[in-house]
Write a structure and sequence with these properties.
- This protein is an alpha+beta fold.
- The chain is built from six helices and seven strands.
- Strands 1, 2, 3, 4, 5, 6 and 7 form a seven-stranded antiparallel β-sheet that branches.
Length: 182
Amino acid sequence: MKFRMAFFLMLTLLPAVFCRNDDRQTTEPLSHDGFSSFTLNQIQKFAAIAKTPEPIILEPSGVRYWDAPKDKGESPQKSKLVSLEATVYSEDGRILLSTLRDRTPIRYFYDEGMMPEVFDKAIAGMKPLGRRLIIFPKGSVKLHEKSSESERLVFGAGGQLIVNVTLLWVRDSERDKLVKFK
């Protein structure tokens, strides 16, 4: 009986002593540019479809992006209406915004102050159905007084933001067409 008890204790306690559970979460910063392991995982997944294995870095903000472009269609230009599908993650992997989940794409007039300036710069040059993985470092997004509640929730979260964007379409705004007929 004592042998069985000792054997049982040995089988249950020894693995706990020698094989301690690694309590580190997957968000612990790694050595690669200070990115969390979640961020590195997203970069690795996106790199499989990206045509740019190295990131494009926007100065002076430090925003980085990887591109999976499409060749047809028109890029966003000032005052054009754009529609985007986006999923925004915090650096620990929480989803802050998902237009796919909510089934409501983002629509706004490009480069008219409706989104943070650094976001407009990050999607510049995209073509319809092109995809881009954008990483906004902490403090790179500057909000203005006219920022919406949802914009403040997403971009004001603090910390690094990982945004996976698909540009759906670019169109002339209806308001421009109305002005032409006056």
